[in-house]
Specification:
2 copies of one chain form a homodimer. Chain A is of the alpha/beta class and 364 residues long. The first copy, chain A, folds into 2 domains: 242 residues, Aspartate Aminotransferase, domain 2; 103 residues, Aspartate Aminotransferase, domain 1. Chain A has 13 helices and 14 strands. In chain A, the strands form 4 sheets. Chain A has a 7-stranded mixed β-sheet, with helices on both faces. Chain A has a 3-stranded antiparallel β-sheet with strand order 11-14-13, with helices on one face. In chain A, strands 1-12 form a two-stranded parallel sheet. At the A-B interface, helix 3, helix 4 and helix 10 of A face helix 3, helix 4 and helix 10 of B.
Chain lengths: 364, 364
């Protein structure tokens, strides 16, 4: 199977092999060394000198951690949503009592920083801005540097970033751009299996934590911080995923992050060019298209679910369909992590062979 | 290394090998089949026909899930605490706004059901009872059937059980005893690596969920339930741990749970007899000593931390020290999962050789 969903991703043999290493005591010296090294390497990839915590859970757990560790019930926040994961970020904040204003953008489009500027100008009581860096559900990447320039540079708000499908694949300069909290998860560009989530906190976010009153226990970074000083996790972690992540981080840093970013930019361009050459429309504009996941609009008259199902059953290519209201309207090709050109060519070939079966005639 | 902590535990080769299987799409048909089978098998081991959810996280996440899915801020609850994990259960409930009365018992002792009866008689406003089945921090197992007999049989309260280190090792008849919510975690008697937590809910707990108003998102079982109907997890799960758990569940059920329980009872007895024959005092009374973890009192004048450290460095035996106020006062030998007699004999031999080094002279 050519697994080309936007996470989990196919993994290298040496990373998968680390998953089978024997268990160790997570309160012993081997784990302390592992945790220390992984934490340092995560900071390097996040490009931050802030705090870094590893949480056993999915990316959604890290999004919830971003919210509950820095906000209090009643806090006014702006959520910038360009898709399902943006909506989720705002929903979490609302459930835990924040007073959320959501700026929604048409699916397939990116955040317009001017609308954020307008909102922050009109309402000085806003405390925090929530934003998705790379929206996996629509294949759109936001201009996070520009958004941070407004939220932090112009208005000095607390900035919480869902970097789940961007960090380790796309440039995200946590400290330089002023991202106070950034969340990510192991099964994305990190090239590890799912099971671990990561959270970075700036000094400003640490101060916000001290005053934040949303209820939290499992996700409270105070516990992670106090145990980290003893080289321990507060709760039993997904030890095997830590083993694999450690190997994967070594490979990422050996390659160098700038090379990793270039590689993603190239594979993104190649995927989009291939899709266009098949006569298929990209879902987002090229200028905002993500380099970790390509969303393709299902042409009029084509059954998108059947296309994805045929690709899997007959060609061994596993793509993701659309989520929620985009179900059947788009399909998505993941190319985060170590994705070779021939793996994308295989997807393009499979599409070329399968499209006629679902009644798609390539436009002349 | 002979890893004898109370979780994680040493794992069989076939279970570890499953951890290295290639990634699959957690929204595809292979995962749906896996999730369905694992859910059914978990119910069989929990001995329940209620609902069952698999959450990516540690056992503490499942404890938090038990609380936030069934309670509202202001609810009166009684927490029965016989150690660190009992304290944690009450702390979680308090943080999320419950009005918690804690009945604490001396470390090393079990819950006295009479004290619960007395409390429930005096305060009819109490809605729920929280209890640890097997307290890993003190090596004590509660008489959960008797406690449930009071909480449910006599007073018909909602009963939330931390079964993290008991389910799959010690008999816990979820439905027969009336346990409304039971939490467990993969790295204990389940014989899988850490990373997954499990939560069972009775029909009564499902009704409580509908009215419960504590904030929850990542741990909200409503999402797990609605996705489960489509054969999916709501958030990206620790797929590799699911692979391993599936293999481990097959082995548990092939052996038969009554045999698994007998095996734990035998290894528990053997461990305690061996400890006594070394002249070491058990921390709890024999009658309430756990069959998954044996807590040993560090004799007067012996440096408990040094003993644990020497056992590891010189004999390759990894034990757990005491937690919080029990640090240095006890050490703990884990024997959950598939623990062979010679693995315990190895611990006893290592102790016999090491004890003189820390100044312990066996009493005549």
């Amino acid at each position: 199977m050519n697994l080309r969903t936007p996470g989990p991703i196919p993994l290298a043999d040496d990373i998968l092999e680390a998953m089978s290493w024997p268990m160790i005591n997570h309160r012993g010296p081997e784990y302390a060394e592992l945790l220390d090294r992984v934490t340092d390497r995560l900071k390097e990839v996040f490009d931050t000198r802030g705090s870094m915590y590893v949480i056993t859970g999915s990316g959604t757990a890290a999004m919830e951690a971003a919210v509950v560790n820095t906000l209090s019930p009643g806090d006014r926040v702006v959520n910038l949503s360009i898709g399902a994961f943006g909506d989720r970020f705002g929903e979490i904040a609302g459930i835990f009592g924040a007073d959320v204003t959501t700026l929604s953008f048409t699916p397939g489009e990116a955040v317009d920083p001017d609308r954020l500027r307008q909102t922050l100008t009109q309402d000085p009581s806003i405390k925090a801005v929530l934003v998705t860096h790379n929206e996996t559900s629509t294949g759109v990447v936001n201009d996070l540097e520009a958004i941070a320039g407004v939220a932090k540079g112009e208005f000095d708000k607390l900035l919480l970033v869902d970097g789940i499908s961007s960090v380790a694949s796309l440039p995200l300069r946590t400290d330089a751009w002023g991202c106070d909290v950034v969340a990510s998860a192991s099964q994305k560009g990190w090239m590890a299996p799912p099971g671990l989530a990561f959270l970075s906190l700036s000094e400003r976010a640490r101060r916000a934590h001290a005053e934040a009153r949303m209820p939290r226990f499992y996700l409270d970074v105070a516990q992670y911080e106090s145990y980290l000083r003893r080289g321990q996790p507060p709760y039993t972690p997904a030890i095997s995923v830590m083993f694999a992540l450690d190997v994967a981080l070594g490979k990422l840093l050996d390659e160098g992050m700038e090379s990793v970013y270039r590689r993603h930019a190239e594979i993104g361009r190649m995927t989009r060019a291939g899709i266009r050459s098949l006569g298929l429309p990209l879902f987002p504009e090229e200028s905002v298209a993500s380099d970790t996941v390509t969303a393709v609009a299902v042409p009029e008259g084509v059954d998108g679910a059947r296309l994805v199902s045929l690709l899997r059953a007959e060609r061994g290519v596993v793509l993701a369909g659309g989520q929620a209201e985009l179900a059947g309207k788009i399909f998505r090709i993941g190319h985060m992590g170590h994705c070779a050109e021939d793996e994308i060519q295989d997807v393009l070939d499979a599409l070329e062979q399968t499209l006629p079966q679902v009644g798609f005639a390539r436009p002349l």
